Amino acid sequence: MNSAAERAELWVGAAVLAVAAGFLAWSMAGSGLASRLGGGYELRAAFPNVDGIEPGTDVRVAGVKVGRVAAVDLNPQTYFAEARLQIPDTIRLPSDSAALIQSDGLLGGAYIELQPGGAPDDLQPGDEIEDVQGAVSLISLMMKFVDSQASDDKP
Fold it and tell me: Which is it for strands 41-47 and 81-87: parallel, antiparallel or unpaired?
């Protein structure tokens, strides 16, 4: 083989590696993996019900995605689901903040909404958010409504 063909193969190989590195960086940014590998801190929240929440679920403040759920585990002593939330270092939440499980509509997915409080001190890495509201089941709400209507109709 001549040296021109070898150089061409070298350049093509370098281009393929550059494209692969670009795709890797893009996928890490989209998946939140970069924030898990570098900066950021973890908060915990124990919910009575985390229906629809799993690792990778969005964590939002004022509707803006600021982090992801890193893990969800059952606490065998309390039987609450403990979610670990990965938050970037640039977001500091007051210690009296609340965590609520919200839905993107009737058929949309669930996410965790953080509502900042007004306390002068901030939550530190590893702290637990005490004020939580678990997932609300649409089926159970409809059943309560039907039951209340049925009891109103009885003479």
Answer: antiparallel
Total domains in the fold of the chain: 2
Q: 68 and 108 share a domain?
A: yes
Beta strands in the chain (DSSP E): 41-47, 58-61, 64-74, 81-87, 98-103, 110-115, 128-129, 131-133
The reply to whether 92 falls in a domain is yes
Global pTM reads: 0.67
For residue 60, list its beta bridge partners. Answer: 65, 113
Per-residue pLDDT of the chain (155 residues; tens, 9 = 90+): 567 778 888 888 888 888 888 877 776 655 555 444 456 899 999 999 888 899 999 999 998 999 999 999 999 999 999 999 999 999 999 999 999 998 887 667 889 999 999 999 999 999 999 988 877 666 676 777 777 777 666 55
Claim to verify: residue 46 and residue 109 sit in the same structural domain: yes
- State the residue range of the domain holding 126: 39-143
Q: Longest C-alpha distance within the chain, in Å?
A: 99
Whether 41 and 87 have beta carbons less than 8 Å apart is answered as yes
Backbone torsions φ then ψ of 54, nearest 5 degrees = -150, 170
